[in-house]
Amino acid sequence: MHAARPAYEDGRRPVNPPIVRASTVDFASLAQMEAAMTPGASSAQSFTYGVRGTPTTFALESLITELEGGFGSKLYSSGLEAISAVLLAYLRPGDHLLVVDTVYAPVRHLLTHFLADRGIHFDYYSPRETNLEALIKPETRMIYTESPGSASMELQDIAAIAAIAKSHKNLLVACDNTWSSGYCFRPLEHGVDLSIVAGTKYLGGHSDVLMGSVTATEAAFERLHEASVLLGLAVSADDAALTLRGARTLHIRYPAHAERALQMAEWLESRDEVVGVFYPPLKSSPDHALWQRDFDGAASLFSIELDPQLAAHQHQFIDALQLFGLGASWGGFESLILPCNMPANRSVDDWRGRGPILRLHIGLEDPSDLIDDLSASFAAIG
Ligand SMILES: *Cc1c(COP(=O)(O)O)cnc(C)c1O
Questions:
Q1: In angstroms, rounded to a whole number, what is the distance separating the alpha carbons of residues 180 and 178?
Q2: If 362 and its partner were Cys, which of 23, 256, 261, 288 is the partner (CB 3.0–4.6 Å)?
Q3: Going by C-beta distance under 8 Å and a sequence separation of 6 or more, which residues neighbour residue 337?
Q4: How many angstroms is it from 323 CA to the middle of ligand 1?
């Protein structure tokens, strides 16, 4: 909560870092300019030119580094840009990538429609894969994980994956940590090299800003920083300030979301229309023990599977909802529902023939109002 706050010598300070909008930085002397421009990671937070960052974006980087427990962080204008930066920074033509089958779906499109053409090879692995080692090729340079996985929410043993990677030369592990947002799981402490967070979600927390971050170990940071410089990746001071503002209350909002989500998940489990609830904090989840081992909390994002017989009623069910919004993204104060096309977004695990899968994000509304909303929609299709 107090991370990345400005300090002034006489003790006075604004509560928040000022929003510094800048392209040009006007130096006092050429010597000062030359000193600020030293290449490499040591100058990652040197205020030299707006594209390289401003005191406002540096403050957010520092806050995220403190949350995630890494060496340094870089910011990106969206979560997806953070992911593409990771893939562009560390992979070269001929390299191979192992990607979890539950990856955030746009990453599939990035791989198929952009990186494949540029000589990056990839295979998907099931989040339930028990012999990842067997899938590693001599040219495998990265294992890309996300835990819990998108939509179906399987957890993976991240420490075990990182240990496998460490037994190979030049094999990095990247982890999309948006579900935890650095609050209840810190991938770098489990041996991961690069942790990605869509700050658009819980860090921003109010559905009004796009932000991405990557936090790296010391060994991996230099290349990450270099890629941002080479590609000209930058975020605005205003967006950084909005994300900082959201992050100040993360520790209050995040558990409040989780408490409501667990209540909703348990209620949904009790409904006849629902044949599955995918949420590791539920005692019924096959991942409950792993979640208890690795996580200090939970996000309010989970999915349900409706009775396959209700497939024809999916539109009616969703359109009857009054309080749940229908839309992409999550992590804001408002509850959302989104149908998931599982067969289109899985290459390994077979999801054909299942009931409708709906992803729910539980906001900060009163759970009894959310239950009333869902009950009315169930009644409408019953
Ligand atoms: C939303 C999301 C992203 C992408 O974030 P954007 O800021 O929307 O680009 C990446 N990973 C996960 C798991 C997400 O939910």
A1: 5
A2: 261
A3: 318, 321, 324, 325, 326, 358, 359, 360, 361
A4: 23
Distance 316 CA to ligand 1 centre (A): 28
Q: Which of 154, 181, 329, 338 to mutate to test the pocket of ligand 1 (most atoms within 8 A of CB)?
A: 329
Tell me the mean pLDDT in the region 293-322: 97
Q: Record the pTM.
A: 0.97
Quote the tokens at residue 180.
């935890």
CATH 3.40.50.620, applies to 251-381: no
The CA 80 to ligand 1 mean position distance, Å, reads: 6
Strands 325-326 and 336-340, how do they pair? parallel
Q: What is the CATH number of domain 30-247?
A: 3.40.640.10
Residues of the chain with CATH 3.90.1150.10: 251-381
pLDDT in tens, 319-351: 999 999 999 999 999 999 999 999 999 999 999
Q: What is the pLDDT of residues 248-262, one digit of tens each?
A: 999 999 999 999 999
Contact between 334 and 380 (Cβ < 8 Å) = no
What separation in Å is there between the alpha carbon of 272 and the centre of ligand 1?
Answer: 32
Ligand 1 in reach of 261 Cβ (< 6 A) = no
Residue 185: exposed, middle, or buried by beta-carbon count in 10 A (0-12, 13-18, 19+)? buried
Ligand 1 atom nearest the C-alpha of 199 is 7
